[in-house]
Amino acid sequence: MFKPADLFDLTQTEHAALFDGVEFAWEVLKKIEAYLATNLKPARHNQCEGRAFIGEQVYIGPGTEVEDGVMIKGPAIIGRNCQIRHNAYLREQVIVGDNCVVGNSCELKNAFLFNNAVAAHFNYVGDSILGHRAHLGAGVILSNYKTFPGNVTVEKDGQPFDTGLRKFGALLGDGTEVGCNAVLNPGSIIGRGAIIYPGVNWRGILPANLIAKNKSVVEVVVKRARER
User: Fold this and answer.
1) 34 in a domain, yes or no?
2) Contact (CB, 8 A) for 198 and 183
3) What residue spans of 40-168 are helical by DSSP H?
């Protein structure tokens, strides 16, 4: 599950060259800055509703709508027919594919979104990759920084494996669904078509087409009148 082809359809991005020579998919996160420095040609072909701040090192494709209050610092490449909604904050090193949604009050930093990826409402996407048609419910956090010293590790052959990254959020394979208010801890890898239920605090690897459910029990009691 660590190879790019295990997680992503590389035909669903115009930036597949980023994955050339990559053994582990997370290595792309180290390449985004240099890729943008080489390939970014600033231009704005978008429509803008209201007022937005768009930095000098930003390309936005035709048909994309940028709503009021958006801040795109750049460097960034944003594809065609996207929705960048009210108060979204796109920080440094961001690549967004075609037909994507970056929703209200979402924050992206050193992130790569394949075509048709959706981060719809109040999401943090830091040092992460969202595959084709990956979808984040409202309030989903892709945490990218571990509390303790050292690089983020993943489990490989039953042992911690150093990714070489101090900051690494998540890799979400094509068609993944992450429910509202779920938190993915640093170094999470979610396979194609997998689902994480709302409110789950996830850590580690979830293979393709599996579902991670929250086992917490909800207690239901009889409502009693309060004494006055």
Assistant:
1) yes
2) no
3) none
CA 72 to chain centre: 16
Place of tokens 């690494």: 168
Q: What does the pLDDT read at residue 228?
A: 67
Instruction: Report whether 30 contacts 165 (CB < 8 A).
Output: yes
Q: Is residue 53 part of a domain?
A: yes
Is 225 among the domain residues?
A: no
Query: In one letter, which amino acid is 176?
Result: T
> Is residue 69 domain-resident?
yes
Residue 106 sits in a domain whose CATH number is 2.160.10.10
Q: Which amino acid is at 180?
A: C
CA–CA dist 186, 2 (Å, integer): 15
* For residue 196, pLDDT beyond 90: yes
Q: Both tokens of residue 18?
A: 């980023």
Please give the sequence-ordered ranges of beta strands (E in DSSP) within 52-144, or none if there are none.
53-54, 58-60, 65-66, 71-72, 76-78, 83-84, 89-90, 94-96, 101-104, 107-109, 111-113, 118-121, 124-126, 129-130, 135-136, 141-142
**Whether the Cβ atoms of residue 53 and residue 35 lie closer than 8 Å to each other:** no
* Average pLDDT across the chain, whole number: 95
CA 138 to mean position of chain CA atoms: 13
Residues of the domain holding 19: 4-212
Residue indicated by tokens 């050193």: 110
Is the peptide bond prior to 75 cis by the omega test (within 30 degrees of 0)?
yes
What are the tens digits of pLDDT across the range 88-114?
Answer: 999 999 999 999 999 999 999 999 999
The per-residue pLDDT for 74 is 94
* Each residue's pLDDT tens digit, 18-72: 999 999 999 999 999 999 999 999 999 999 989 999 999 999 999 999 999 999 9
- Structural domains in the chain (count): 1
